[in-house]
Write the structure tokens for this entry.
Amino acid sequence: MWTTTERRTTISLSPPSTPRLRLRPEAPSGSARAALDGAWWPRSADPVAELPGLILALQAHGPIDDHRPITHVLLRADEWDGRPRRLRIDGPGDTRVVRLSWFDSLPCGLLTAIHADGRRVDLFTVPVSTPRTEAEASMELASHPHNHLRATDLLAALTSPPGMDRADDASAGSESAWESEGGRVREDLAAR
């Protein structure tokens, strides 16, 4: 049963901001889907202020004849200040309502946007307080065509204490650094 709060649509009173967004180049047809489609670095933890610009930018990305609207966004609940259920997006050509779903179980640092045709976009969400150099480096890595790291891996790299080298951690016998079948150090950690 819907309550009055769940049916209420939130409207941003400010115009959509230009998002700090990096998307991986379009993959050729038939290629394997990557772990992430890019990265986004919001300016605040206010979803009403940040999401309209992001959603409009994601809708405009892709082939010119394939601009399907985003209808649903999945977010991690503890990474945001508010939790509206529906958000009105005022775009240049139309106005639409996007459903927002909040999860405690979604991996840290992951935002998933779903288009009307079912296509999804998975973005690494860089924490707001990340210094510019580190944020830009992680966005570059997340959007690189050959990146296979997940949002949680990128977030762990950003939040590691200074002076702690994850490659040293892997060589010290960390079980998370071993492959399940071969017992070798994972290549992504060993290369660091």
Summary: The chain is about 25% helix and 20% strand. The first strand starts at residue 10 and ends at 11. The two ends are 51 Å apart (CA to CA).
